[in-house]
Amino acid sequence: MSEAETLERVQRLIADGGHHYAAVVNAAKVSLARRDSELMRILKCADLVTADGMSVVWASRMLGSRLKGRVTGIDLMCTIVKQAERLGQSVYFLGAHEESVRGTVEYFAASCPRLLVAGYHDGYFASDDSATVANAIRESGADILFVAMGSPAQEIWIDANLKASGAHFALGVGGSFDHISGLVKRAPLWMQRAGLEWVFRLASEPRRLWRRYLVGNSVFLWLVLKQILSGK
User: Fold this and answer.
1) Binning pLDDT at 50, 70 and 90, where does residue 192 land?
2) 198 close to 53: Cβ distance less than 8 angstroms
3) Which of 38, 154, 180, 218 is deepest in the core (most CB within 10 A)?
4) Please, are residues 54 and 218 in contact by the beta-carbon 8 Å criterion?
């Protein structure tokens, strides 16, 4: 789906009144899911899965099942927030460091002044405290939940705690809070459109990200080539 179609589907899921979640995938996450059966299960059970990386879009074209385009976690989050402001839906931000999540709330408070922020919480809490955090989200009355814990932690948390949180829709957004708050600079638009955002991020944080991108992207390329050669 396009970003507009994805946003429309998200709204229908929220209106449905159940507990739904979406996931975004890039080359590294696809590679990780191939060796992490729990992550694979969660991605397959998601109500929506969109391409966070251009490599996934390119692969879809090579494999004969063309995606309309890239729908990233950070861009989808921003459009959902704007829609929530218009419709009076409340949002909750969970994850990242305290400075990052608080900065994200402040950014949206300034850019979307009528947005109903039900609450926020950093992502640095013990696993034993997950039930307490989920209960706090439920008590806040949040309609929409954004979780920024990185993969596979955010997908696993959503899968285990979404129903308890009471939110009607959840989206894992990775490092988006760091970008929204201004703590981490995002790649220039031309690099995003060219599918080179990963190069910018790798150059910015080589020690932390080299394995994710160099190894993950290589595995992804091999998986695509293997599927092409197999004729599937």
Assistant:
1) confident
2) yes
3) 180
4) no
- What is the predicted pLDDT for the residue at 205? 75
What totals of helices (H) and strands (E) does the chain contain, helices first? 13, 6
* 56, 67 Cβ separation under 8 angstroms: yes
| Token pair recorded at residue 42 | 């969660």
Count of CB atoms situated within 10 Å of the CB of 137: 23
Nearest to 97 by CA among 218, 178, 26, 171: 178
- What pLDDT, on the 0 to 100 scale, is given for residue 143? 98
User: What pLDDT does 107 receive?
Assistant: 97
Overall fold of domain 3-172: Rossmann fold (3.40.50)
Domain chopping of the chain, boundaries:
3-172
What is the amino acid identity at position 39?
L
Phi, psi of 8 (to 5 degrees): -65, -40
Predicted pLDDT of residue 211? 72
